Amino acid sequence: MNTSTDRIEKQILLRAPRSRVWRALADAEQFGAWFGVNLTGKRFVQGQYVQGHITYPGYEHLVMDVLVERVEPERHLSWRWHPAAIDITIDYTPEPTTLVEFDLTEVDGGTLLRVVESGFDQLPVGRRAEAFRINDDGWGQQMGNLERHVGQG
């Protein structure tokens, strides 16, 4: 069990080749299909912002906005964002961001994907616990979404 308040860590063994998992992460259309967002652009490019409307029912009014930090094909993808930025009346831009990292490792039987989101302790105290809870639950759901997506071919 993860007892840290600063980082969320999830991992899953995906029964798919690393190249397939990478496409699901790095191709904006595929990412959007399992994550629930309609992203602009075709792929994640280091140093660039990627945005898109959330497509999950009830959250369509929200925009996901990330700054791509690092791209190492078939190994690592990371970005920064404002976690749990779900109140459209709040300007989250002055707040620190968290770092989301996807690390892929080829293993017997498929690809081990490790997702780490860190930096929650830097968030304003009034938002910290709720943002952590929302994203901890969210990453658990997203791992299942990704597993179903890569299993479809």
From TrEMBL:
Domain of life of the organism encoding this protein: Bacteria
Residue ranges occupied by any Activator of Hsp90 ATPase homologue 1/2-like C-terminal domain in the UniProt entry: 15-150
CDD domains on file: SRPBCC_CalC_Aha1-like_5
Record-linked SUPFAM superfamilies: Bet v1-like (SSF55961)
InterPro entries cross-referenced by the UniProt entry: ASHA1/2-like_C, START-like_dom_sf
Pfam family, any one: AHSA1
Family listed: Belongs to the AHA1 family.
Protein name as catalogued: SRPBCC family protein
Species of origin: Paraburkholderia sejongensis
